[in-house]
Amino acid sequence: MLGREWGIRKRVSEIFSQQICIKSALRHTGQIDIRRNDASNVRKTVASQFPPLIVMGVSGSGKSTVGAALGTELGMQFIDGDDLHPRANKEKMAAGHALNDEDRAPWLEIIAERIGAELADGNPIIVACSSLKRSYRRMLTAHAPTTVFVHLCGERDVIAERQSHRNHEYMPNSLLDSQFDTLEPLQDDERGVLVDLTQTPDDIVRSIKKDLTDTFVD
Description:
Elements: H1 2-28, H2 38-47, E1 53-56, H3 63-74, E2 78-80, H4 87-94, H5 101-120, E3 126-128, H6 134-140, E4 148-153, H7 156-163, H8 176-182, E5 192-196, H9 201-216
Parallel strand pairs: 1-3, 1-4, 2-3, 4-5
Helix pairs in contact: 1-5, 3-9
């Protein structure tokens, strides 16, 4: 099992390294313009005051909506972690089957390496990712230990009601119970903030920004 996990991590790392090399080569050849205007520099300076963020919670809690709004407010790039799932994971969930730890391992490693690489480039980002287990959160912060988790908390009935009004591409509502069964709340020794998801998106963003500024920004 350890050998297989190492093999997965190695393959993910090789793919990610190739992407970085291609991006660097394009910059040097002028195909990517690395110049920044003054407004971009200001946004980057503001964003760099905050650590990388992972908006976490069960399916239907509003991670993508809040993550995108928070990115706009803080001037940080937002990435939906669901977009980084391997095709096999998407097909499995679409069929109504919950992912297991082996399914999630390469996905979590891809997200972790992306967060670490962006931070090393001075660009802390926001990622929406369920991050249900403590062990998953350890993997996600392996390359960026300063990452802060933003947990959108709510009762199952509230989230189920929200889910009934949406049609996710590959996350059927039937998987909600399995997500709550898997969820391990943030512990005191983890870097994170808890947010009541029954608030309006604007209020949620204001609350998160205040908590981050008070606790995690020097």
